[in-house]
UniProtKB/TrEMBL annotation:
The keyword NAD does not apply. GO terms for biological process: protein import. Residues 74-186 form the MotA/TolQ/ExbB proton channel domain. Belongs to the exbB/tolQ family. It comes from the Bacteria. The keyword Transport applies. Keywords: Cell membrane, Cell projection, Cilium, Flagellum, Membrane, Protein transport, Transmembrane, Transmembrane helix, Transport. This is Flagellar motor protein MotA. It is found in: Cell membrane; Membrane. GO terms for cellular component: plasma membrane. The lineage of its organism: Bacteria, Bacillati, Bacillota, Negativicutes, Veillonellales. The chain crosses the membrane at residues 15-36, 107-133, 153-170. Its main location: membrane. It comes from Veillonella tobetsuensis. It is a multi-pass membrane protein.
């Protein structure tokens, strides 16, 4: 089994090395993002629960820091530093933007791999076919050499497509989760602004 995998890997040519590296990077990013989103989902649920309990504007920063984790610390600081409604709104928008960037970290690499992996696979196949036809140059009566060389060269394309499909799956999952988180966070920012209005009778 291992010998056949090694044979196919070598048959794919030099492009197999970056393709394997792309696969490793894809899995690392996908697993890291999955674990991050699980933690963020739990933190977001606690954050929403605190805001839903209406602890009052004065106590809100303290309760956020006590009952939530990263989100509570970030938003509590913004609430304490708010001088007016516009200042609070701008600060909340900054926090949403910061969170969005943090949640999207690594997705650019996945997008690049989705594009690059099939192209590398195609390049490997073309180079493999060139080698196969070059070998036949001195032996026209050996068509099996061509078919064998082409079938081996296609390993590069199949590997590139496989890596791209895995990367696309992770990217689509991550993009959907980030969108859901940001929509929910923006809604909670509206809740905070409403609480500020109630406290200051705006």
């Amino acid at each position: 089994m291992s010998s056949s995998i090694t044979h196919l890997f070598l048959a794919g040519g030099f492009v197999m090395y970056p393709l394997v590296m792309f696969l490793i990077v894809t899995l690392m990013i996908g697993i890291e993002r999955f674990l991050l989103y699980r933690r963020f989902h739990k933190d977001m649920r606690q954050f929403t629960a605190v805001l839903g309990n209406h602890p009052g504007w004065i106590m809100l920063p303290t309760v956020l820091e006590r009952d939530t984790k990263e989100l509570g610390v970030l938003f509590a600081r913004a609430l304490r530093n708010a001088k007016n409604y516009n200042g609070l709104e701008n600060r909340l928008q900054d926090l949403v933007g910061y969170t969005d960037e943090r949640l999207k970290r690594g997705l650019g690499w996945l997008s690049m791999i989705v594009t690059m992996a099939p192209l590398l696979g195609l390049l490997g196949t073309v180079l493999g076919m060139i080698r196969a036809f070059a070998v036949v140059g001195g032996d026209i009566g050996a068509p099996t050499i061509i078919t064998g060389g082409v079938s081996e060269a296609l390993v590069a394309t199949a590997t590139g497509l496989t890596v791209a499909i895995i990367a696309l799956g992770f990217h689509s999952y991550c993009a959907a989760k980030v969108n859901d988180f940001i929509v929910a966070l923006e809604h909670e920012c509206g809740t905070i602004l409403d609480a500020y209005n109630e406290e200051h009778d705006l």
